Amino acid sequence: xxxxxxxxxxxxxxxxxxxxxxxxxxxxxxxxxxxxxxxxxxxxxxxxxxxxxxxxxxxxxxxxxxxxxxxxxxxxxxxxxxxxxxxxxxxxxxxxxxxxxxxxxxxxxxxxxxxxxxxxxxxxxxxxxxxxxxxxxxxxxxxxxxxxxxxxxxxxxxxxxxxxxxxxxxxxxxxxxxxxxxxxxxxxxxxxxxxxxxxxxxxxxxxxxxxxxxxxxxxxxxxxxxxxxxxxxxxxxxxxxxxxxxxxxxxxxxxxxxxxxxxxxxxxxxxxxxxxxxxxxxxxxxxxxxxxxxxxxxxxxxxxxxxxxxxxxxxxxxxxxxxxxxxxxxxxxxxxxxxxxxxxxxxxxxxxxxxxxxxxxxxxxxxxxxxxxxxxxxxxxxxxxxxxxxxxxxxxxxxxxxxxxxxxxxxxxxxxxxxxxxxxxxxxxxxxxxxxxxxxxxxxxxxxxxxxxxxxxxxxxxxxxxxxxxxxxxxxxxxxxxxxxxxxxxxxxxxxxxxxxxxxxxxxxxxxxxxxxxxxxxxxxxxxxxxxxxxxxxxxxxxxxxxxxxxxxxxxxxxxxxxxxxxxxxxxxxxxxxxxxxxxxxxxxxxxxxxxxxxxxxxxxxxxxxxxxxxxxxxxxxxxxxxxxxxxxxxxxxxxxxxxxxxxxxxxxxxxxxxxxxxxxxxxxxxxxxxxxxxxxxxxxxxx
Length: 688
Hints:
The protein is an alpha+beta fold. Helix 7 (312-326) packs across helix 10. This is MrfA-like Zn-binding domain-containing protein.
């Protein structure tokens, strides 16, 4: 596993606040605290707070935000990412106490062997805390193993060892193999995590109760804390593991805990949050057996925006946030109408150059305004639509007159491009996004079901702090480039009117209803699944985005997994006009996202050939006719039609909906059977 940035620090379970770097510096044994590193984007989407990260010798879980504070105190000032529009959305989800978006505690090194940033890192706990000896199969808690991490430049050598391992004797040996412990010499053997866990739909995670399991819920009749062994013929990957008590010789297979029948044998949830080292007072939901590497063990819940030129209102809100951060309420109240005093107090903290006295006093008044009540916030959250994050971006792209007046501070630079004569006629606008900045913020995570598979219910979000009221959240600031394509709205509306009454659309809608009912979380409220079902134009634009990503990856110099989609596809409502467009972009936390290979494809002669080639490839699939005629029927609940890995599917990093809501038949009129045939938006491609 290769990791390139953001040192991770590790500490054992403790009721005290974590400060592993300080403890390492004060240790007489010079024990090293750092155990690995990861990119900021990886810590945002793959190995964030509450997830499980596999290291070479054991696994860890990044700790909650409370334990990040000792790390931040190592710096006189805490860096922040200013983006009022995103902060407002985070406050809507987590409450008005959130006042900052902070980057991960990392500092790049100027030279290979320099020590810049060595006093920073993300605290993490060892989890799972039950380990298995690789030599004798001994299964026990963390305290029964010794930890070694002494090499300053090799954190990958950090390991847990069974210090008095006897090896596999006659009872534990295998036929035809030498018995490591036959001569009775104890040795140090490496240990690995015991990979079985318990999880519930409320986001709690716990160790598997091996002792109670092997004794069928009763104490061991031979010893209060017996030694256990976990023998696994499948090397930890499946149901072949058997737990054995060494004192009373009772045995039980882990396969009994799997499936619906296994759930009835498992204990109720204890409400444990390992990343917080805390328990919720009440839960009581049923638990499910979970393997440590399961894909549904952790789902990040994030919000992201493309930074646009700010309005005067957003500038005022940003300054108000700074005032609340750097001044107490008492001082702010006392000097709110005295801009000269405010400037003196904030002289070395906030840059007020270019801010007029009127703007400063207006921001002070906003900073002192009472936040909305909890009832008002909850009501706004219930009515909130994620599309609201996209509307300002769409509105800006509809005003080419603003492009020449772009503000460099926003990091956005776009250019209206001419459309080629051979470009499909329904693509009526092309915009080259020469530079862009994307800000992503973490608001929590879920387990078992991701948020958009259920009700987006706020209570399903696992809290990031022990009290559930953070004052800041982690965020990343990425830069990149892209291409924006807009479809003709009249053509889209006319095509959509033909799709809605079709039998294919009814089949997709029914499949979504079945999928919604079967995957609905225990903690979510009953709602109408049709309100979560995207309109035909979304399927159209989503399918177009995927075939373009696959085609662009062969020409732009970026890998397909580095390209991502941002879809602007919603019908008209009283509050906002209809949208039909897509942005294919690449972003990274460094210069790798701005190499120019993608935006170069916006040139008319290159783009028109690329779009035509993408549509031509989409007209045929190596899995046809099976793929081209795939329609959910007879109780099937998959959320795609004529789409598969051979023609439309993209990587997880590219698709915002996990390869759902895709169908090539909405792009092109394919030769399918009558009840599945619908008019493709682009008709047919000559020569296909």
